[in-house]
Design brief:
eight-stranded mixed β-sheet; four-stranded antiparallel β-sheet; Rossmann fold; 2 domains; alpha/beta; single chain; Threonyl-tRNA Synthetase, Chain A, domain 2; 269 residues
Length: 269
């Protein structure tokens, strides 16, 4: 059986607080030994994922900014890896143009990443200034702080929708992006890049922005949240695993479970 793995990062593969993935390492090693692709599918930016991917010795394709763009190696996994980018959502210049126009037409009060210095983003997010600068290097989505009324937020949403843009509520920020999500990036990569026949698609995630990706996969591993709850999804319970522990140990438990359940023993290539 050919397995292919799509995974969220924060709270799924990475520890919610310090972003380590130590406890998942044995599972990552085993997947690499079996040549099973591990495709990062995160809300993080290319700049944020780039170094992490090297640290994980991961040379699979990956998706950034909630499926807004995908990156894939164009010549195998040699040393001189070339990454190609395809934007599945709307490019950032288009988004910023729409935001500027709506701001001037409706006088909406908001502050987006493009309006903020690295220091300000660091202050609001709790990231280091360096990490904030990586989070600011965006391709196809823009976080913003809404500083206007709830009524105006509705108008704002409607105006964005007229331009094929959506507004997603995150923790602290709203995210303006095209009609993309992680499941779209997963489908794109399966249709255009990983076209191996008879693949079993595994998805791992922990929160609402992973839901569609988990529901579209053949098998979903839901990683326990730090408040001990689990994301609820609509799927045959036989095709769902809820990890006993939180990330990163929960990620390893999920992979161990999948190897056992799907019988992908050592006969697998
Ligand atoms: Mg997450």
């Amino acid at each position: 059986m050919n397995l292919i793995i799509f995974t969220d990062l924060d709270g799924t593969l990475l520890d919610h607080h310090d972003y380590n993935f130590d406890a998942a390492q044995p599972a990552l090693n085993e997947l690499s030994r079996r040549n099973i692709p591990v495709i990062i599918n995160s809300s993080k930016t290319y700049a944020e994922i780039k170094d992490l991917r090297i640290k994980m010795h991961n040379n699979s394709a990956f998706a950034v900014e909630n499926g807004a763009a995908v990156y894939y190696p164009t010549q195998g996994s040699g040393q001189a890896e070339q990454l190609k980018q395809t934007i599945l959502g709307k490019p950032l210049p288009f988004i910023l143009e729409q935001l500027a126009e709506l701001r001037s037409r409706f006088h909406f009060q908001f502050q987006s990443f493009a309006d903020m210095s690295n220091e300000t983003v660091a202050e609001i997010t709790g990231l280091s200034v360096e990490s904030a600068s990586l989070a600011k290097q965006r391709q196809a989505s823009e976080p913003l702080l809404w500083q206007d009324s709830a009524d105006n937020l509705e108008i704002f949403k409607q105006q964005l929708a007229k331009n094929q843009l959506q507004l997603l509520q995150g923790g602290r920020f709203y995210h303006v992006m095209g009609q993309n999500d992680k499941s779209l990036a997963m489908a794109w990569l399966l249709n255009n890049y990983y076209q191996t026949p008879k693949q079993t698609v595994i998805a791992l995630g922990d929160s609402a922005n992973d839901r569609k990706m988990l529901e579209c996969a053949d098998f979903a591993a839901i990683i326990r949240k730090t408040d001990h709850s689990y994301l609820a999804i609509e799927k045959d319970p036989e095709a769902v695993f809820n990890s006993p522990d939180v990330a990163p140990l929960g990620w390893r438990q999920a992979i161990d479970f999948i190897f056992n359940k799907l019988g992908t023993g050592d006969t697998d290539e």
